Amino acid sequence: MPLKFTKTEFARIIKKSDPKKSPGYDLITNRILQELPESGITFLTSLFNTLTRLQFFPLEWKVAQIVMLLKPDKQPEEAKSYRPISLLPIPSKIYESLLLQKILPILKEKRLIPDHQFGFRNKHATIDQVHRLTNKIMESLEAKSYCTSAFLDISQAFDRVWHAGLLFKLKNALPDHLYGILKSFLQQRHFMVQSVEALSDLCPIQAGVPQGSVLGPILYLLFTADLPTSESLTTGTFADDTAILAAHRDPKIASQILQEGLNVISDWLKKWRLKANEKKSVSTFTLRRGSCPPVTLNNIEVPQADHVRYLGLHLDKRLTWQKHIFTKRKQLGIQTRKLYWLIGRKSQLSLENKILLYKAILKPIWTYRIQLWGTASHSNIEIIQRFQNKALRMITNASWFVPNELLHHDLRMPTVKQEIVRHTKSYKERIQQHPNTLARSLMENHNKARRLKRKIP
């Protein structure tokens, strides 16, 4: 049955759109669409319904304008020094949003997106995925096992999506009327590059999902939904970031299980014309001596490391969070030096604005995913607390005899441990009502007796 959009749906999306978003080459902005009269909304709704019925995506909406932004401290003569920003026509994004509203219920009903995929999904966050992995690591530490892991990154993931392969999967997953419009959406796309006021010629796009589009992320999730998994492995994906964990009391067997999983994934990547970055590291999490034997990907040995960075968190070999806290403390020091002229003792800025800068710039650095690293030891948490003490003394220009407790009380600034309790409480309430069964299961063994005297999230 063909899709049909209503004026109410169209008006709701227009109202939620950001008027400050940059337009495409057609220069039509969200503000222009928000100022449309009733007749304009009626006309566009009729136009979108006609396009859907004909399964046709206009060629004018399939032209991306690429703006090149120079990265900080990079040479302007090198192409790699620029960050490309893809600007698409705003009417195209509005139409994609309407289509996405019709596609998401079908994906949920048919369970087309695997549970281990947490990227680009409603009510799924990076902390949920990292929590799954750290929970598996803690279980292996409790069992005195070796947990070997591989953290993979698909090279240019969104730009390397094979159109023929994606259309094949869409044909088998979605109804014919949706497949037809998505096929038209992917084919005959072009881009042009803008440098200052100069524009290049139109160039065809042969692969990849459109960057900056609304449907691009969902199409990528559908393309990678059949990533091979195994009951002997713990697989976690967040968009193109993939983590694979294997645990066993024998380090050789743990590496063997991981190697078998990597071999299957390598074959899958070759089949669907994707390429993984072999420079990503393999880590072994254990309280015992030694580590697991090395593994290979595409016949290239993957380097081993004592710690790994995944979704913004640093996981060390014994999961003490020491590496993560040290990294955040270093980052806080750098940012504080940059802001010293504003929040330092000699700054003429008001106390209210100094506190505002601290809460807006410095505090989010160390509170990021505090629900997980907040289980660290008291000595490691005190590293962050000492930084906050120094920052508050600097902001208020307090004398040496003023107690830290008084500064926290007068400024109504919670301590680090109070922040841990507050964030953990809200996270626990959210995870118990999580739509993903893999996330809800994290609370099942929360009160289980444990060998190690460690806090858990």
Shape: globular
Supply Rg: 25 Å
DSSP, total strands: 14
The whole-number mean of residue pLDDT values reads 91
Itemize the secondary structure elements and their pairings.
Elements (H helix, E strand, L loop, with lengths): L6 H10 L13 H5 L3 H17 L8 E8 L11 E6 L2 H21 L15 H17 L3 E8 L9 H11 L2 H11 L3 E6 L2 E2 L3 E2 L11 H8 L10 E5 L2 E8 L2 H21 L10 E4 L10 E2 L2 E2 L2 E2 L1 E4 L2 E4 L5 H22 L7 H17 L2 H4 L4 H19 L7 H7 L5 H17 L4 H4 L17
Parallel strand pairs: 1-4, 9-12
Antiparallel strand pairs: 1-2, 3-8, 3-9, 4-5, 4-6, 7-8, 10-11, 13-14
Helix pairs in contact: 6-7, 6-8, 10-11, 10-13, 11-13
What does it look like?
- It holds the Pfam family RVT_1.
- InterPro entries: DNA/RNA_pol_sf, RdDP_mobile_element, RT_dom.
- Residues 50-315 form the Reverse transcriptase domain.
- The chain is of the alpha+beta class.
- It is 46% helix and 14% strand.
- The protein has 16 helices and 14 strands.
- The strands form four sheets. Strands 1, 2, 4, 5 and 6 form a five-stranded mixed β-sheet that branches. It has a five-stranded mixed β-sheet with strand order 7-8-3-9-12. A two-stranded antiparallel ribbon has the order 10-11.
- Strand 7 (234-238) and strand 8 form a beta hairpin.
- Helix 6 (163-173) runs antiparallel to helix 7, helix 6 packs across helix 8 (216-223) and helix 10 (322-343) runs parallel beside helix 13.
